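User: I'm putting together a teaching handout on how multi-component assemblies are represented. Below are the sequence lines for each component of a complex, exactly as they appear in our records. Could you produce the 3D structure of the whole assembly as structure tokens, so the students can see both representations side by side? Please keep the chain order the same as the input.
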Amino acid sequence: MIEEISIIRVVLDGDIESFRLLVQRYQGPIIRMIKNIIDDHHICEDIAQDVFLTAYKKLSSFDPDRSSFSTWLFTIARNKSLNAAKKKRTLSMSNLPENSDSSTPVNSLSQQEFFDRLDQVLKTLPSKQKTAFVLAEFEKLPYEQIAQIEGVRIGTIKSRINRAKKKLRLALKSFGEDDL
Amino acid sequence: MKNERFYDDWKKQRSQVEVGHNFTEKTMKQVYQYEQGRKSSLFDIQWLVATITAHPLVQAAMIAVGAIVGFIRLAIMLHILLYA
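Assistant: Of course. Below is the structure of the complete assembly, with chains in the same order as your input.
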């Protein structure tokens, strides 16, 4: 695997085509992160393209002494996702939808219904909890890196993830077991 | 236990990602278009901002230029006020 710093240096020296290596390396994680935050399959690739274009435009301002390239790129993606989500107003802390009725017994719920319920809870999480949760649970990033992306302390990240998990647990309590 | 298994399956499902087959091409096309536009335009604000924020020397130079311009403007105003 070619060192990212070397690729960046080559791109900054004028070899635009080398930027393709960075796009190919990160397109999967970036699209997945955006998809999990804004929950709209139709626009997540457009936002991801915008993320890479912004990264290209600002590449000269990337400082490897301050963060890794992936942290820097995820930070751009996080900001773009939250802006897009704000526009769509999907991050409101509205009540859970009707299908999260807690009276439904566990055994009568199919796996898909379980997934739908978790999707709904994820959708209604406050943006800060949601981004921290998505980066930790789906991107498997270490807390330290998430803290850098979010610009807060590790303790704050742990607390946000715990609160998000607590909400998921609470919403699923009605399933009969509480062991996430 | 059932919840735990379902929860793990849900995470696996949401961790799957499908990248459009021409995503890389589309992205690189945008990059080339941007680069072409930047080369054709004489004054690129975004490039300028990126350059200024990236290099401390350029930042210092910009501040110095701003200070000099401000001083000259002040001197001209004082000259006009006192001698006009």
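A couple of points students might notice: Helices of chain B lie at 2-15, 23-40, 45-54, 56-83. DSSP finds four helices and no strands in chain B.
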